[in-house]
Fold:
Amino acid sequence: MNIRQFVKSVIFVVIFLFAFISVSYIVRTNGDVKDRFSGFYAEKDDTLDIIMIGSSPIFPFYSAPKLWGETGVAMYPLSSNVQRPVAMKYLVEEAEKTQSPSLYIFEMRMYTMEDEDLSENMAYTRGVTDNMTYSINRIKTIQAMVPKTEDRLSFYVDIFKYHTNWKMLTLKSEWMNWRYHKESELKGLEVKDEVGPISMPTAAGAEGEMAISAVQEDHLRDLLQYLRDNKYQALFISSPYNITLEEQQKFNYIDGIISDAGYSFVNMNNFYDEIGIVFEEDYADYGSHTNAVGAEKCTDFLEKYLMDNYKFEDKRGNALYKSWDNAYELWLERLDEAKDKIEEHILNEDYAIKEE
Structure:
């Protein structure tokens, strides 16, 4: 092969890989999680102050646009549905490729669950791996989350799973994902306007400890060691929800591990009065996830804690953050709309359909 043929071959391979990767990103199934991750990758390098990592108790509970509009602190949720704790360390590594946040916040609800229950449905794994851009870290994440007995090839090259998803190519919005960089208008927030009432949990604040599973404890201790080794500042939280006695006692156990490692854990289930949460009105689905009114309250509580315990630069007025100003304005609009619908649902007792 002469030099000219070699150059042609290299050019062909580069073009093929570029097209292959771009199409892979586009045909991934669209939805909130995809938009949230591609929105994260679209954020300008080294502009995020806080990155939240964890499962669905993040993106409907905490309004990053609200935090920005009131403090000038940019926070983004790198979050997916039923996110397995094993993923957290790798998502920090992913975040550090483009960002240098002052603080990581980890939501701990999934640590009270058995990993076997979470790994039975590989969709919970794909929520992470299939929304990461191709990289060495993505390969490491797959190796950590997918057993060798599974077909890892369809995880490494996920177009094998989504190869029939060609309808994505007809959607203009998905073509914006050719680099997996598509700005999130609300910075990863999901605004809910449903109401699913439930009585306030009686287990909140209970004493006593119950050990979490050995697998989840290993993941937690590994994450804590990784954070210490890299000198990353971190806060651990549990969002308020319809907690059971067993879960409350597991959080008490988790608190001890985190405190011993030199970090803080805030179990918001111990602060219902301070948050002002009303379980009969502020949840969209019977105590699991807040609606917009609940999100406003939880964000207020978290915002106060952050301002009281950490120092951040107020970056409002910085031209780099124009999209954040827009997100705050949009949040205010969506909040007003959601409040009207929530009030109407409560007045008419028009409640969300309960999942069996």
Observations:
- The mean pLDDT is 95.
